[in-house]
Amino acid sequence: MYLCISLLLANIANHGLYDGISIACSNGNCQHHTTIIAGSIIGGGTGIILLFIVTLLCCHHFKGRPLQTNLKFVNSTNNKIYKHELHDVTIFTSGIWSSRHYQSGMWHSFSYFMLSFDPKLFKVTGSGLDNIGIFTIDGTYSIETGRMGLIKTYQLGTKKRTEDFKYQMIIQLTWNSETHQFEGKWYVQTNKYPGDAVKIVCANDDNEVHLLLKRLGWLDKASHQLDISISPDNTKKSAKIPAHIPPLCSLQYALTNCIDIRLSPRKNILRLFVDCTSDEDEKRRLEELCSKEGSEIYIKYILEEHLSIIDILNHFPSCKPDIAILIEFLPALMPRFYSICSSPLDDTRRITFVYSVLKFEPLNGRTYERFGVCTNWLNKIDIGTKVSIQTRISQHFRLPLTLDTPLIMIGPGTGVAPFIGFLEHLNLSLKSIDGFDVNNLNTWLFYGCRHRQHDFLFEEQIQMYQQMNVLKHFFIAASREENYPFRYVQDQLKANGNELANLIYNRNAIIYVCGDIKVMVRDVRETIAHLLQEHFDIPNIDQYMQSLETSRRYLLDIWS
Ligand code: FAD
């Protein structure tokens, strides 16, 4: 232990940081000197300010702009155009194009739009909708250089207010004959793009914090400020105050918002508890739990039963730990991920996600009833509460480049969430892009719930996507319904085995699996492997399944 923590009994007084400095003048030159010095300071200062303003204006003017105009770029010959591609008009084909961009270290989602090429004027025009708004495209291209210079303009009133860039962006692209796509840069000033999952910053349950404070006898000190410093006796070089605890906060705040009081305590905490326990029998049991020989008991009775720090303290009533142990050794309360089930094309400042509240009974050593930390917190917060979120952008769990690729989406329970986002994205693309033919889609959704009457999530949306032909095939499993033949999603996969195997083996289908990791993910993989082997007699099925994964045709978004 290296922290020294005490609770301040009163608020820290708000002292000023600096005192004033005064300089005295002893002779008559003083005023003259002062004038010269003041003049130099004013002159120099004005120069610096002007330089600063000019630099700012230049940065503002050139930031987000290319070095060449689109016309110059398109006609510039000093590019790596591949000779055999010169004069190849087929690369400029009118129709539906897809594009995606790289920003903040990762690839963002595809958007689909219409492009028309005018071979007489070498003009390119287009329109579409992406995660920012409705846009039109105007530009020019050259068959000689294989280049396009585009200006993408968002329609007024459709651009998201959360995006901090102007309505136009410049895009300069060069044909790459190796990858068979146009590649290049877009010039725009922005930082934010929606991702496909959100991290919700949550808090511990007030009752649970109360239980802990009460058990430790700290209820009356809950609102006192924590004063944390490194202990003078510390010998550890790397000792530092945990980053997740703010320098000035109350004990109540730290236990509610910063520290995970739910996770089962690690053995090092139990070891420190030994010295804080007065009862000899309890001491011995604690020693046993954190010993090497006691590992099996520790795993079975603490980890597997998810006993929390409060459970442990309740099991060892004579243990009175120092507050520093909890602050120093309990981990940070982590935000939880939730898959976004709305499309970024939906032009509102709203995201949708779905969660199910977890409930754990007071059994097997758990000394009080509890709920999932984040889901319970979400359930309890009032409308209008400000919630801190961070977006998490998935690199690969995304719609494919071409819309006619068959999609096999498997998502029981809340695992259906990203697929609702996919279907909504396709639905909105369909509405906004001329020439988007819904018949090209080949979408399969396998969903599972307990009882179709009670917990069929997104029932109405799914029916709507079916009616609109965006969702071509839908299959549902119900694990708690008597006389219903499909208990799990894998039962439905088996029932459609022939077509699925064919789509995967012959039609390059992409398989997406989302949901709770426990058994479903393993069983679904086994089922698909079995179906493929049954229908195509693949000699090394493990290798084949691995190749699906490495070629990103078997994609997982799973949690435990
Ligand atoms: P926690 O308090 O964190 O408890 C959750 C887990 O702890 C349980 O699953 C269980 O394994 C274990 N556990 C704790 N105590 C006990 C106990 N006494 N008995 C048995 N087990 C126990 N969830 C959704 O609902 N919807 C989504 O769309 C979604 N998308 C996700 C996307 C990604 C990329 C990831 C990684 C996760 C996603 N999750 C989703 C899961 C989500 O992040 C949370 O893990 C989940 O909501 C539970 O959080 P919680 O804080 O309520 O529960």
Automatic annotation (TrEMBL):
Which Gene3D superfamilies is this protein grouped with?
A: NADPH-cytochrome p450 Reductase, Chain A, domain 3, Nucleotide-binding domain of ferredoxin-NADP reductase (FNR) module, Translation factors
Q: So what EC number does this one have?
A: 1.16.1.8
Q: Record's InterPro entries?
A: CysJ-like_FAD-binding (IPR003097), FAD-bd_FR_type (IPR017927), Flavoprot_Pyr_Nucl_cyt_Rdtase (IPR001709), FNR_nucleotide-bd (IPR039261), NADPH_Cyt_P450_Rdtase_alpha (IPR023173), OxRdtase_FAD/NAD-bd (IPR001433), Riboflavin_synthase-like_b-brl (IPR017938)
Domain of life (superkingdom):
Eukaryota
Q: Sorted alphabetically, which PROSITE patterns does this protein's record hold?
A: FAD_FR (PS51384)
Q: Name one GO cellular component term.
A: cytosol
Q: Where is the FAD-binding FR-type domain?
A: 119-400
Q: Which UniProt keywords apply?
A: FAD, Flavoprotein, Membrane, Oxidoreductase, Transmembrane, Transmembrane helix
Instruction: State the top-level EC class.
Output: oxidoreductase
Its source organism is Adineta steineri
Q: Give the required cofactors.
A: FAD
What SUPFAM superfamilies does the database record attribute to this sequence?
Ferredoxin reductase-like, C-terminal NADP-linked domain, Riboflavin synthase domain-like
- PANTHER family per the UniProt record, alphabetical: METHIONINE SYNTHASE REDUCTASE, NITRIC OXIDE SYNTHASE-RELATED
In Swiss-Prot or TrEMBL terms, this protein is called Methionine synthase reductase
Can you provide one Gene Ontology molecular function annotated for this UniProt record? FMN binding
**Biological processes per GO annotation:** homocysteine metabolic process; methionine biosynthetic process
Q: Which stretches are transmembrane?
A: 36-59
